[in-house]
Known about the structure:
Elements lengths: L22 H19 L3 H14 L3 H14 L2 H18 L8 H14 L3 E7 L4 E4 L7 E2 L2 E4 L3 E8 L6 E7 L5 E6 L8
Parallel strand pairs: 1-7
Antiparallel strand pairs: 1-4, 2-3, 2-5, 5-6
Helix pairs in contact: 1-2, 2-3, 3-4, 4-5
Amino acid sequence: LWGVLAVSAFVLASPSYAAEPTEEDKKKAGEFYKEGSDLFKKELYSGAIQAFEKAHKLVPHPANLYNIARSHEKLGDAENCVKGYEAYVDFYKRQNNGQDPKDIIDVRASIAKCRLLQRPKISIGSEPPGAKVYIDDKERLLGQTPFETTLDPGKYKIMLDLDGHVPFEENIEVRAGEPVNLRFRLEKFQRVG
């Protein structure tokens, strides 16, 4: 359809231009686009992203955004892949009276694929705060609550330990693209005797 299409997630909000691009801008953008296409074919995706971004800055076009998203997908950069494809669809719709691009089914499939690759953010908090956080390995301290990390999809055992409180364990399941926000109330040890 567009050949190699690419644009960076950092160019998502395309600037509005008061004037049409000059012939010089168009020529230079074409050179950057060709450079990006050549780099993409050589599997040099980071360089391709930079070239497509330069082309898009000079002459905004949905093909640039598509190619940037596709390059992020090839790099395994799930977050920028999703942002890039969404920017492509949004830009295309703004340029075409709200119509979806002809490749919308493929783009949605790519977005879904990238979302599956995203490592969701895990937030762990406790009352009171300051509990030591362990995930699957009681010998490996990761930090203290409040604590944030990202995890691959799967099953994990969360362990919290705070002096003067009953140690806490909870099994959780992390699903692709679904952030997890955990808050636990820790019980104080009861003095007996």
